[in-house]
Design goal:
alpha/beta, 24% helix
Length: 177
């Protein structure tokens, strides 16, 4: 069904955190993606410069950073930047957040397996709540609104037996993790 890329949304300002949390949390997210069934990783930067990740973490999975000049417009703008950086040979994108350091590679595998069987847009759910990863097939890439795909209908894949990726917005969130 084609190759799959991961897009890590890491463009936000992190104002509630007080410093560029992406620099702190991105290594954990990248390490977990390196254990996932994907073919490449694109990290979208915006408010803060990020270092290109070392490929030694990813067992040969190519990883690169792309800059999104319109990051202030919202997560959808960052997602559009990431999607536009993907080659024609990519059939689907696994969307994850840089502030979700507990991303489970098994959740990535589950949503991808469901996407391969059903197509469309597929997201992990935790205790019935929609979360990440989110998989969007190429047909779903058009007209991504600035506020992202949060309101788009998706097929939910239960991942209640796995840890949710987390959502680190403040230093207290990180301490609680």
């Amino acid at each position: 069904m084609g190759r799959v890329a991961a897009i890590v949304l890491a463009a936000g300002e992190a104002s509630r955190f007080g410093s560029p949390k992406q620099r702190l949390l991105l290594p954990a997210v990248m390490e977990r993606l390196g254990r996932s069934p994907i073919d490449e990783i694109v990290v979208v930067q915006g408010a803060h410069e990020l270092e290109a990740p070392s490929n030694s973490l990813f067992q040969g999975i190519p990883a690169r950073v792309v800059r999104c000049e319109e990051w202030e417009r919202g997560p959808g703008a960052s997602l559009r930047c990431g999607l536009s950086a993907l080659g024609e040979n990519i059939a689907a994108a696994v969307v994850v957040l840089a502030d979700g350091p507990n991303l489970d590679p098994v959740a990535v595998e589950r949503v991808l397996r469901t996407w391969r069987e059903r197509g469309g847009a597929v997201a992990a759910s935790y205790a019935g709540d929609r979360g990440h990863p989110l998989v969007v097939g190429r047909a779903e890439w058009s007209d991504v609104p600035d506020d992202g795909l949060r309101d788009r209908p998706v097929l939910l894949v239960p991942c209640d037996d796995l840890a949710a990726p987390g959502d680190i917005d403040t230093p207290e969130d990180l301490a609680a993790l």
